[in-house]
Each structure stands twice: as C-alpha cells, then as structure tokens.
Amino acid sequence: MGNPTFRWPVRVYYSDTDAGGVVYHANYLNFFEHARTEMLRQAGFEQDQLMAQNLVFALRQVVMDFIRPARFNQMLEVITEITQLGGASLQFEQRLVDAQGEVFCQAQIKIGCLSADQFRPIRIPQAIKQELARVG
C-alpha cells in the first residue's frame, strides 16, 4: 500500500443481496468494476470512446477475500489502488470498507489492455497511464 488511492461510494441495494440479506458474492465484483470505471472516468477516459479507438480493458485475474458480509442499505466505499502499472496491464488492490475502515471484501485484480477488434494485448497509451497515476 502507500500508493495514491481512488475512493468510490457504494450503497448496498436490495437487488445486491441474496436470500440471507447479505451481498451476493458475485456482486462484490460489480462494486469493484464500477469503482475502476469511475476511476478511469475521473482520469478523463470513457470506455466507449476508448473502444472507438480500438482499446478495451479486460479482466484477466481476480483473487478475492470475503471477510465479513455487507448488508442491505449499508453505505460503504470502494478503495482502489494501482499496485502495478505495466506495459499492457494494470494491477489493482481494491477494498470495500465502511466509514470506520472495517474491510468487508478485498481483491487483487489484474486487467489487460487489448485491441478491441482482435482482443490481443496492446500497450496502454502513456496519456492513460499518466492520468490514472494522478487520480489513483
């Protein structure tokens, strides 16, 4: 840790929960995905515009640790930190926390940069790297 972080608020909606009233395990991935999308947006890049430039980001690897259940109507926050910025990939540490900093779920996520037409790895443009480093 120690790198700049990006923070994104999350409210747990009823549709995020399972029959037990806690966040369904797959929905933590949605929370993390939304935070990464908003981080990219804050850096000045919209995914549809990047796709029009033949660039997409794709999930390559996820390691998740479910620590405590998040529940309906909780206000939480996703903390996103870039832990490695490679030529064609990004690695993130993401945590879903409450206002006291208690961690509900955390993940190490690797994203690849691909050409939109052939889904082959391509280098992340320098402008994107610089702005992502600035916002988080």
UniProtKB/TrEMBL annotation:
Q: Which top-level group of life is the source organism from?
A: Bacteria
Q: Which Pfam families match?
A: 4HBT_2
Q: Which UniProt keywords apply?
A: Hydrolase
* Matching PROSITE patterns: 4HBCOA_THIOESTERASE
Q: Which family does it belong to?
A: Belongs to the 4-hydroxybenzoyl-CoA thioesterase family.
Write down what this protein is called. Tol-pal system-associated acyl-CoA thioesterase
